[in-house]
Amino acid sequence: MSKTADYTVPGLGKANGEEIAGLLQDRLHALNDLQLVLKHVHWNVVGPNFIAVHEMLDPQTAQVREFADEIAERIATLGTAPSGLSGELVSERRWEDYPLHKASVEDHLAELDKVYTGVIEDHRQVLGKVGDTDPVTEDLLIGQTKELELFQWFIRSHGEKLTA
Amino acid sequence: MSKTADYTVPGLGKANGEEIAGLLQDRLHALNDLQLVLKHVHWNVVGPNFIAVHEMLDPQTAQVREFADEIAERIATLGTAPSGLSGELVSERRWEDYPLHKASVEDHLAELDKVYTGVIEDHRQVLGKVGDTDPVTEDLLIGQTKELELFQWFIRSHGEKLTA
Amino acid sequence: MSKTADYTVPGLGKANGEEIAGLLQDRLHALNDLQLVLKHVHWNVVGPNFIAVHEMLDPQTAQVREFADEIAERIATLGTAPSGLSGELVSERRWEDYPLHKASVEDHLAELDKVYTGVIEDHRQVLGKVGDTDPVTEDLLIGQTKELELFQWFIRSHGEKLTA
Amino acid sequence: MSKTADYTVPGLGKANGEEIAGLLQDRLHALNDLQLVLKHVHWNVVGPNFIAVHEMLDPQTAQVREFADEIAERIATLGTAPSGLSGELVSERRWEDYPLHKASVEDHLAELDKVYTGVIEDHRQVLGKVGDTDPVTEDLLIGQTKELELFQWFIRSHGEKLTA
Amino acid sequence: MSKTADYTVPGLGKANGEEIAGLLQDRLHALNDLQLVLKHVHWNVVGPNFIAVHEMLDPQTAQVREFADEIAERIATLGTAPSGLSGELVSERRWEDYPLHKASVEDHLAELDKVYTGVIEDHRQVLGKVGDTDPVTEDLLIGQTKELELFQWFIRSHGEKLTA
Amino acid sequence: MSKTADYTVPGLGKANGEEIAGLLQDRLHALNDLQLVLKHVHWNVVGPNFIAVHEMLDPQTAQVREFADEIAERIATLGTAPSGLSGELVSERRWEDYPLHKASVEDHLAELDKVYTGVIEDHRQVLGKVGDTDPVTEDLLIGQTKELELFQWFIRSHGEKLTA
Amino acid sequence: MSKTADYTVPGLGKANGEEIAGLLQDRLHALNDLQLVLKHVHWNVVGPNFIAVHEMLDPQTAQVREFADEIAERIATLGTAPSGLSGELVSERRWEDYPLHKASVEDHLAELDKVYTGVIEDHRQVLGKVGDTDPVTEDLLIGQTKELELFQWFIRSHGEKLTA
Amino acid sequence: MSKTADYTVPGLGKANGEEIAGLLQDRLHALNDLQLVLKHVHWNVVGPNFIAVHEMLDPQTAQVREFADEIAERIATLGTAPSGLSGELVSERRWEDYPLHKASVEDHLAELDKVYTGVIEDHRQVLGKVGDTDPVTEDLLIGQTKELELFQWFIRSHGEKLTA
Amino acid sequence: MSKTADYTVPGLGKANGEEIAGLLQDRLHALNDLQLVLKHVHWNVVGPNFIAVHEMLDPQTAQVREFADEIAERIATLGTAPSGLSGELVSERRWEDYPLHKASVEDHLAELDKVYTGVIEDHRQVLGKVGDTDPVTEDLLIGQTKELELFQWFIRSHGEKLTA
Amino acid sequence: MSKTADYTVPGLGKANGEEIAGLLQDRLHALNDLQLVLKHVHWNVVGPNFIAVHEMLDPQTAQVREFADEIAERIATLGTAPSGLSGELVSERRWEDYPLHKASVEDHLAELDKVYTGVIEDHRQVLGKVGDTDPVTEDLLIGQTKELELFQWFIRSHGEKLTA
Amino acid sequence: MSKTADYTVPGLGKANGEEIAGLLQDRLHALNDLQLVLKHVHWNVVGPNFIAVHEMLDPQTAQVREFADEIAERIATLGTAPSGLSGELVSERRWEDYPLHKASVEDHLAELDKVYTGVIEDHRQVLGKVGDTDPVTEDLLIGQTKELELFQWFIRSHGEKLTA
Amino acid sequence: MSKTADYTVPGLGKANGEEIAGLLQDRLHALNDLQLVLKHVHWNVVGPNFIAVHEMLDPQTAQVREFADEIAERIATLGTAPSGLSGELVSERRWEDYPLHKASVEDHLAELDKVYTGVIEDHRQVLGKVGDTDPVTEDLLIGQTKELELFQWFIRSHGEKLTA
């Protein structure tokens, strides 16, 4: 069964639609993985700041799930069938599983910082590529990046070392 | 009575303001017509999927009405008097009345698909023209186009033919 | 394609149903035009009382839109296909476009007063005609008239001249 | 124990109060039966449109239950004891049990259409009888009929056959 | 200063408007007095059922205040200046002050029952008079009477004597 | 038309599913009758405690209606068509109609106490039978019994005689 | 029937309780009259600022009604039966009826300013008298005075004349 | 471990802070006991007015719990560690356990009246002592006393004997 | 005055009802003490994690108060008078007062962990005893235990030591 | 780093805790996969019933995500570190990726039906195993199974074939 | 242009009004500065407790902004024009800018503690001065001081050193 | 202490991050000043349109405060410490204090118009500079400019002079 429809959004061209959808599929895998990792940390973090960090991660999870939904429906709108399947996610992704299980707040936040860096860098790359052909997709990715960078700032602020 | 004010938004220039407002007046007519058409279909659709499609169109109507309000207040902000009158809409529009009255879900969705294609293509054209002089208007149109393309995907998904 | 169904509401008679629906179609055009006019004034009014009048018109618009929906679904319930299209509105209506664009609060309210007088007089005429055959439609129109007369009182109160 | 109080509403007359209450008792049975039937269909409908129709029936059930409550409290206000008992409902009603159990959407909606026709015709008959003596009861029945006719239109719209 | 405007509602005639407004002014006094009495009883009732009756009266007060507002704005809509002043209320009313201060639940409910009878009888009289000329005012009074009769039933149900 | 589907819930066995559904059909009749009785008492209770008891019964009615819905959808989930029809309720039930119409709070609460005793005893019997084969149905019935016993306590507390 | 109970609040003394209640009864009449006047102005104000002033008065009315309720329940708590009756209000008050009916915004606000001055001056006098014996009543009156003075500021701000 | 901090609120003086905190600790025990007693009566009251009194006590419990929280946080703010422990409550309190278990509405309300008298008298004593040094604590206690006296009035109103 | 009613829940037997109620009375004391302890810690905890732990305890307190209410009403439903009195709590409990006043987050959480262990062990014991005779009480206790264990996990997660 | 804590829930035994946590880890993978699949279908379903089925899946997704959270926090409460990672999910699961991408409503619902059968059968197996040692986990799984079976019924009802 | 009106609140005297307003202007500057400082800390705090403290400051900011509004409208009510301008704030204030930018939680909370001490001491001084002439302003300041002292306690609790 | 972190957002470069943050600091001062000015006008405006303009400014204040928060957190996200202090605002800003205190609506709106022009021109300049290096910051500024221009249109509409 074909994974693409016989349409894309008006005024874009079928080839452009497929190419952008392909770039977004990678972003969908990243966000689907991120929502799983955020919940995983939510369950496995321990230490004196447990409850505050445990609670901080839930609105991040909720927002990232909405971003995955937004990306996937954009792929479909562009005429391609999005994949939200775990098997395809794992075989197609360009990164490893998150490395920690139960660990301290500091260790988890240090790892999450790296995860966010990866997701944000890739979002910025894709939005730079699609802006000329599809400003709608560009705008969608800019909006997501803004929130992801804010979330990363929350995480970074916990571990920042001040220099006198 | 003059239809333009002695101001436009700071930093834009009066001539630019009037030109952009003129492009937006056409978009206002399109959105005002679209909200009327969506309600018209809401009342006239029949068939086995009646209730689901009848209900799907109400949030689309509400959103399109907000878009019309947003465009009209942008025109006014740019210093020009927007027209929301039916007579001017009909005499100035570049398209015909929606062709169906009571009809099946399939027929109405096929017609609505065409209506959305027209509105979206024109939105994309205008946002391409105004970006250099007024990134605020461009951003407003990109945001609307994003939603309109999503609504069109809802409509297209009902009638999509799958190829093996 | 026929514009009437093979049914009307139980206990009314097909001919009665069609006749009442015909009277209501005119009321639907009037309310659809009124909602467009109210928004048009909302955008084009200026002067020292701008914000209060600008805000007063939004709940009126919302209510009139609900009335249009109520009338149109009544027409459909009676077995006839309602028309909510702008082209048919303009060609079938018995009145002209609203005459003002950007204008002062006083001028707009004076014109809106006339618009309301027209809509209310016609509502009263139709409810007088349908009462004997269909008390349900009569009650619906009485309820709308009650609100429309209240809205007109709001508008009239701004400009009332007191005599000593 | 007497089923009537020593009062009725002011200005009506005890005999009128009892007569109207008697007419309303039949309407109460009809609405109590209708709320049971709507839930019964909600549970027993199957087919490709299952979820949309299943969900459409819940607000109808809720509304009909409020109507039954309104009628019963009107009977009591008129000075008579209303009966909401299943045994009395079944022995006093003038119609049979609803004929289907598990069945397709089409078959259930066709049967529900008939049920609504019966309830509405009887509501219209009673409101015609009580108008001269008690405009309050008349108005209550007109309001209910308006909603019941709208619900019936929802149901009819699923199965309407269009003629070219 | 004249107490009437130079307008009334469209299609009614200035004399009719004034006459109906005059009938409604008496209803406004009655409802304004009733809201004061309901609060007065709310504060002065004592006995084993205190809290339940104390709380039952608050939604009645709130509803009656809305009715007074509705009547007064109808008078104004008809072109006459309504009076909501206590001095005019007392000098123009056709009934005495409520007779009790601190008293038992039974005594207060027995008195309130009489008050409701008076208000309802007068409402029914006025709605009978205005129906031919102004169905809108008639409908407004029918709606109020329906609620007032229900409130009276609440009150009567506390003291009803059952006959075996 | 067959009243059972070709499935039951996974891991249960078709015969078990049908047997449990049969036991639940009796519980559905009991709850449907109970919601009717609770409303009937709501309308017919009189006396000094009227308003408090009148209001106490509404959340009980709402809860019992949800329980009926929960049971009926469980029957359907188990693969059998539930019956929510009044005729079948009356012909299949093992109890008589509720015996009172208009009566005092004390008399109604004494009768309702008996009704609750019957419903609860039967619920307990059925949950004892189904626990080994279907812990899901058992849990559903335990949850309902918990609330029904609490409601009965409310009713019993009104009439409890204290012994010194 | 005695207008005072055999109790007052703990720690105050029966004579003190009655004296304070007497002072509060006058405040109750003032607030009851004020809520009637505020609604009266709400209905009778006209002119270019109609809608803004019309709407400004509703939250003031709601607040003043709550203050009346608070005062009356305080009187009852102190052991005296409060009077909320219109006849007693008019015969016991020390001021005249509000002098205007339909009038301009300016004229009504000028009169309301005087009404507020009277109510506030009396509130301040009473709170000065009761502070030594009953700080609870004093605090209640201070809280009300704070809001009443704020409302008066709203009214005064409309008509303030600026001196260069 | 010291029960006092090295601070108190600015401008008060450490000795004053400790003294006031000591007076408030007694009030905290009283309110903690009162919330337990109110729930205890909520569970153990029986008789014809059961449901109304049962429900009346819940908002009183909720309010008293907030008062306890407010007092305890005030103690901590003043620099002293508050005690909310049951053992310390019982050993330090100056009153006995509430004397009733299951009992009639009348008996419970008569006992609760005494409990409220005790709590209110002590609140009034403490607020009289602290006013000169700490108007903030005084104001907090006045606010609580106002509500507690209102609650007591609710309770007293059930049993008040009227003298002709 | 007898502490038991002449009834228990249908189908259980009076002796069983009393025995289960007796076991639940101990659970009621435990939960009443726990709600007091949680608030006590809420007020007395200090240190760098103050605000997060201070806030974490409030939903736990609210939930435990609902559990106490649920247990007490179950005791009453079973026919026995529950005791919610502090004096009886302290004299009948099998544990000491909570040992800390103002202390660090770590110390308080370590103590709270022990308190939760005690409450949960006893809940598990009682639910094991009542399951055969009363599955309703068993289910109620299982539901509470589930939440209590989750709360304990929150507390334990703050202090967990990780082993490499 | 050890994946288990030095505790489990009170009264259970460390070995039992670990064993149950192990069984639950499999359920966590199943629910995490199910939430991904439900969203995947939400995006890829097409055909005449698109919008109704598209919308039906969102509350199922939300509920399944809560179930995963509930299971994972139960594992942690039992003393073991849960894994919510996609890589571990895919390498440890006992089933394949969902087989469809873009497909018709019928095809997707037929596949989802199989997925639900698998999840429910496994849930029932695990709840059967843990009941003797941990009734809390058993109850949690019964509650989830109840909802999952209801969701499966929704899906099955779309495709049920009726036999005459 | 004069900064004072020709009125002050009734019963106070113009000179008193101006003097109190002058004292309040200093409090307005303090609160306006405090809301800016709280946001500044919200943005600049770092360290392991980042998120909990970051979130704790937002409701404090919101409350302080409402206090500033309350003070400013009180100044205006007293007849003087309040200044909310940053330039006047800085030139008229009696304290320096807050000394930190990015810093640890401990350092920021230690500084904020000092800021609160200053604001509270000044509030207490002013409320002591105005009580005799204007109890309304006194009460307003007492209410604000109560909340400000509670906020300071939150802040102090983070850094409290316990002495054994 | 350094005012910059050792990071900026991924993919941007530390120098770019610092430069953009510097441009945004000026925008933060402008928005912080604007929120103070809007409240200042809210308190100091007088004249016939007082209440409407007084109320219009509150949602503008709330929005501008959110914009300041958004800008400040963006600066922090970029790795620089934002300054929200009044002293730094006044010494670093490039404009004077707002010139009016108590003044008429017309005068204040004319001054606010100028303030908005300044803020918007500077926003547009900065967004033009940052677009190439950081589309996220650009998008944030475009979104704010859109709202600020709309607010300015509200203000301008009050004073617009119409030319025939």
Write the layout of secondary structure elements.
12 copies of one chain form a homododecamer.
Chain A: H1 14-44, E1 45-46, H2 50-77, H3 86-92, E2 103-104, H4 105-130, H5 135-159
Parallel strand pairs in A: 1-2
Could you give a short description of this structure?
The structure is a homododecamer. Chain A is mainly alpha-helical and about 160 residues long. Helix content of chain A is about 70%, strand content about 0%.
Please explain how this structure is put together.
The structure is a homododecamer of 164-residue chains. Chain A has 164 residues and is mainly alpha-helical. The first copy, chain A, has one domain (14-158): Up-down Bundle (Ferritin). Chain A contains 5 helices and 2 strands. The first copy, chain A, has helices at 14-44, 50-77, 86-92, 105-130, 135-159, and strands at 45-46, 103-104. In chain A, strands 1-2 form a two-stranded parallel ribbon. In chain A, α1 (14-44) packs antiparallel against α2 (50-77) and α2 runs antiparallel to α5 (135-159). The longest helix of chain A has 31 residues, at 14-44. The model of chain A has no long low-confidence stretch (mean pLDDT 96). The interface between B and J is medium-sized, with 13 and 12 residues.
Which terms summarize this structure?
homododecamer; 164 residues; mainly alpha; Ferritin; 5 helices; 2% strand
Question: Percent of residues of chain A in helical segments?
Answer: over 70%
CATH class type of chain A: Mainly Alpha
How widely separated are the two ends of chain A?
A: 63 Å
CATH superfamily of chain A: Ferritin, core subunit, four-helix bundle
Give the number of domains of chain A.
1
Strand content of chain A: under 5%
Number of strands of chain A: 2
Sheet with the most strands: spatial strand order of chain A: 1-2
Question: Biggest interface pair, residues each?
Answer: A-J, 36 and 36 residues
Give the oligomeric state.
Answer: homododecamer
Determine the mean pLDDT of chain A: 96
Taking pLDDT < 50 over at least 5 consecutive residues as the criterion, the unreliable ranges of chain A are none
Structural class by sheet pairing and helices of chain A = mainly alpha
What is the CATH architecture annotation of chain A? Up-down Bundle
Shape category of chain A: elongated
CATH topology of chain A: Ferritin
H/E element order of chain A: HEHHEHH
Q: Rg of chain A to the nearest angstrom?
A: 17 Å
Main beta sheet of chain A, described?
2 strands, parallel
What count of helical segments of chain A does DSSP give?
5
